[in-house]
């Protein structure tokens, strides 16, 4: 694994070439999820209006590349949510954008705190709490700013739990894939002359 991702010698807040590339890829995935109907925002008959999977790249960004990538991915998610809003709730930039900035931040902090114990467990918990962060902050601001009465939050809780469980499962799977791919791309330096190498 490269040091930039693992963070053994590079600050998690440092912007590296690897992190810029990861941020670009995750931003592109976020945009695709946001603009392709039924992928990032799945219409459902609740007060929330949609179930979301678009927070997954933001969670993954925080887990594999640190807080800066997580925050950037969340910003892209929030802007898309605001621009494509069909309800007054998400036409408010405070509700649509601000909570999304914290998804990757929380995911990174949880993963960083738990990965020393077990990386898979850390990814599961980071995915669950990253998704929960989105739900809690969006609903909290929706109530605080008068878009939803407190009682309207209760029917949304089961949906939020399901979203968090799905996020947890996808985060551990995608993080594993990322680390496997990364370990294959990062090779030890050659120790033989070029003409003696088998490739």
Outline the secondary-structure elements.
Elements: H1 3-6, H2 17-35, E1 41-43, E2 50-52, H3 56-65, H4 67-83, H5 88-91, H6 93-96, H7 98-114, H8 119-144, H9 157-185
Helix pairs in contact: 2-3, 2-4, 3-4, 3-7, 3-8, 3-9, 4-7, 7-8, 8-9
Give a quick rundown of the structure.
This protein has 199 residues and is mainly alpha-helical.
| Unreliable residue runs | 1-8
- Classify the helix fraction into a percent range: 55-70%
The number of helices is 9
Strands side by side in the biggest sheet: 1-2
Report the sheet-strand fraction: under 5%
Mean pLDDT: 85
Shape: globular
How does the helix and strand content classify structurally? mainly alpha
SSE topology string = HHEEHHHHHHH
Number of strands: 2
Tell me the Rg in angstroms: 19 Å
**How far apart lie the N and C ends?**
22 Å
Molecular structure report:
Strand 1 (41-43) and strand 2 form a beta hairpin. The chain has helices at residues 3-6, 17-35, 56-65, 67-83, 88-91, 93-96, 98-114, 119-144, 157-185, and strands at residues 41-43, 50-52. Helix 2 runs antiparallel to helix 3. Strands 1-2 form a two-stranded antiparallel sheet. With 199 residues, the protein is mainly alpha-helical. It is built from 9 helices and 2 strands; from the N terminus they run ααββααααααα. It is globular and about 50 Å long. The longest helix has 29 residues, at 157-185. Helix content is 65%, strand content 3%.
